[in-house]
Amino acid sequence: MTASANRALTVAVLGTTQTLSWGSSYYLPAILATPIAAEFGLSRAAIFGVFSGALLLTALLGPAAGRAIDSRGGRDVLAVSNAVFAIGLVLMGLAPGPLVFGLAWALMGVGMAMGLYDAAFATLAGLYGKDARSSITGITLIAGFASTVGWPATALMEAEWGWRGACFGWAALHLLLGLPLNRFLIPRVPPPEKAVASSAAAPESKPPRLRDMALLAFVLATAGFSASALGAHLPGLLQAAGATAAAAVAAGALLGPAQVGARILEFGFLRKVSPLVSARIAASLHPIAVAVLLAGGAPMAAAFVLIHGAGNGMLTITRGTLPLALFGPVGYGRRQGIITAPARAAQALAPYGFGLMVDAQGAQALWLTAALGAAAVAALFVLRAR
């Protein structure tokens, strides 16, 4: 098999296993929160509170997971993540009450630290160095459909087997599909530091400046906050802006296609553009979308979703490619864990915090995310690629 074919296979495998990992973890509560809350006598908010706690644990463990990928390569770490996900899902399905349910989500938090995008990006950085950009874009194109696949699959399993059976079904997929794919079809490579040191493609080993890492962490945190906040409250925000319930749902359905469309644009037209320039374009789109919606009201709901979705789709790629362009592939995993920890924490806290603002101010709450987006654009103009 040629090198290009091997690389295409690796991207396809990671795209598939990322779709599985996202669908069975991050997107799980949206479908199962209601039946779980009903059985345990809890509110849906309590279920999502446990989920937020798992996301905070993911943020704390991210640097350690990245360090493991730096030292061992990503193949084994990703395979172990499938096992951890499976154990967490089985424990969730067996949970007799909230305490064991919370323990199950703690294990899911460990799995998410080891097995979601940042781990996959670090794996590709170790395999391909600074040439990993197109591969990172490729897996986000495939895994961009994780909610499209995951939500219906979870709903179908829950309808057939109950929420506990859905947990067992996802656990089986991790063991029978995800683990073998990650373990046997992702190439084994030397630790990234050694691979890069022995490669003529490694131009320098100058350590990144703390200021640049802090600026990038801020950019990714603002993007994570806005994406998580709107992901949780988008239909309600559109209705607050004057759209009918049906129109809000129809406009919200454009989010996924907008994200994937922007990633296709990044993969094609923008692939020769610096990741820093691409990030500036992406970060500017959300403030533009907010201005369009608040100036035009309900008739601009679809335009708002398309513009915001395009920016969000591109920023997902930026999360992997910009640290690579700014700091290089050496130590990518650990550094990625540090840089993205604030973003993961922001994603965990955003649905609740932003929900309070929406309840108090309606669509005007979007001025907060617009201001954060504008600050992110300013920060990106301070950064300079090495």
From TrEMBL:
It comes from the Bacteria. Residues 1-386 form the Major facilitator superfamily (MFS) profile domain. GO terms for molecular function: transmembrane transporter activity. The chain crosses the membrane at residues 45-65, 77-97, 103-128, 135-155, 161-181, 213-234, 240-260, 281-307, 365-383. This is MFS family permease. Pfam families: MFS_1 (PF07690). Keywords: Membrane, Transmembrane, Transmembrane helix.
